[in-house]
Structure to design on (452 residues):
């Protein structure tokens, strides 16, 4: 029953996302899909719960249920029934379509990948260190105390690991606990399974913008069957860590911006903005990535759109100001290994770069985690046809470079040893990059295998 409750909770997040996005729908635009709706619904509910705490409301179980019920009711009232019918007809048509052998084999392999992740989610409760001692522990605090304003976040004598860490995943886990009325570390993993499936579906939808299904499905299979998603590793699809929901939100933000620039669809702008809010509230590396994404958008887009883009970024930062305020109140001595951002420190740490490159290559080319993914990336870079360099292509390339540069800048100035930070974080951070990177690789073959 708890597993069924998890899927009902997930369905509620989708409906909430559809309800929010329905305010930006127009008759000339295609309704947002389930992946975008789940991303937006997750970001909106998690941050809404934080804002209620920020305003002084203690979230008892009854209040959790009241918030969920009110949000769901408003979303159902806002969603157009026709958009669900379009989605249903398209899904049935896609399932019943006749395909060549390669596409059929890809679907079979993706289904096997889903079954593997589903069995991992069903067989064991949360057990990875970050999932238990960090995200799961924070979720239990929020569920039992009803607020983040507890000594666990501000008292250095009893503080837990990472008190300054963004709280999106813990709030969503706590909301699920509030929905069922008790802690359930087993079924909560199905939330991460849903986020992973939505992420894969989103990547497929974007690949199909420029590629035939006969190529898009095999490319998705390369990504969806990566060993890291099923290994005993924090980057596992259902590990309970924040990397999979972060990857979904980051991909939704990037692809929302790309779609808005290409087609001028306001709903895509809403997806990008709300997903960006979720990115910042999900992991600490989200803020520089979001600022960089919208900054690059200002640079690349036509001048007539720049005021709107600057307004969106300003609105995101204003909405996040309560979180920035609470984050600033956490005593600095509670922050594990705070980073010194001075330029002098950066110059002194440049000697770490050769060790960083060597450690990165060892991590990236581990077949047990990545299979042949990076060899495929290199192959696409070397032999992929250079398709027409559109605004989308240039912006996506720049975003990938920005993301890599931001991560490696952190490694250079981190007070931890190079070996420690690379082994602990690189594989997980590269999963954030893998979705947009697969789209970039796929689009390089678009002139040979054009799509719709």
């Amino acid at each position: 029953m708890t597993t069924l409750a998890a899927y009902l909770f997930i369905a509620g997040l989708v409906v909430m996302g559809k309800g929010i996005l329905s305010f930006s729908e127009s008759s000339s635009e295609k309704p947002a899909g389930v992946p975008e709706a789940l991303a937006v619904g997750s970001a909106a509910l998690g941050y809404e719960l934080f804002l209620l705490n920020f305003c002084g409301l203690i979230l008892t179980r009854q209040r959790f249920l009241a918030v969920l019920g009110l949000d769901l009711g408003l979303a159902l009232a806002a969603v157009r029934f026709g958009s669900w019918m379009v989605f249903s007809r398209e899904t049935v048509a896609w399932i019943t379509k006749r395909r060549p052998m390669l596409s059929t084999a890809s679907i079979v392999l993706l289904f096997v990948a889903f079954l593997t992740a589903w069995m991992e989610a069903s067989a064991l409760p949360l057990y990875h260190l970050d999932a238990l001692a960090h995200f799961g522990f924070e979720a239990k605090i929020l569920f039992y105390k009803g607020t983040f304003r507890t000594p666990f976040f501000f008292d250095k004598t009893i503080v837990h690991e990472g008190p300054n860490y963004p709280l999106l995943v813990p709030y969503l886990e706590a909301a699920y606990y509030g929905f069922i009325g008790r802690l359930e570390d087993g079924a909560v993993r199905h939330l991460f399974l849903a986020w992973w499936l939505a992420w894969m579906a989103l990547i497929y939808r974007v690949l199909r913008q420029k590629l035939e299904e006969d190529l898009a499905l095999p490319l998705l299979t390369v990504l969806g069957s990566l060993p890291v998603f099923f290994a005993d590793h924090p980057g596992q699809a259902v590990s309970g860590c924040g990397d999979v929901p972060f990857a979904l939100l980051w991909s939704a933000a990037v692809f929302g911006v790309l779609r808005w620039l290409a087609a001028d669809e306001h709903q895509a702008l809403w997806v990008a903005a709300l997903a960006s809010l979720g990115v910042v509230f999900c992991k600490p590396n989200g803020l520089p990535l979001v600022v960089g994404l919208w900054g690059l958008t200002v640079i690349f887009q036509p001048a007539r759109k720049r005021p709107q883009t600057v307004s969106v970024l300003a609105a995101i930062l204003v909405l996040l100001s309560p979180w920035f305020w609470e984050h600033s109140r956490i005593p600095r001595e509670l922050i594990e290994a705070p980073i010194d951002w001075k330029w002098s420190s950066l110059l002194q740490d440049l000697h770490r770069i050769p060790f960083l490159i060597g450690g990165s290559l060892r991590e990236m080319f581990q077949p047990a985690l990545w299979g042949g993914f990076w060899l495929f990336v290199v192959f696409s870079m070397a032999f992929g046809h250079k398709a027409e360099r559109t605004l989308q292509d240039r912006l996506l390339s720049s975003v990938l470079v920005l993301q890599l540069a931001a991560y490696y800048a952190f490694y250079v100035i981190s007070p931890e040893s190079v070996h420690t930070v690379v082994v602990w974080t690189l594989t997980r951070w590269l999963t954030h990059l893998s979705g947009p990177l697969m789209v970039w690789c796929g689009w390089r073959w678009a002139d040979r295998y054009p799509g719709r």
Residues 2-332 form one domain. The chain is about 70% helix and 0% strand. The mean pLDDT is 83.
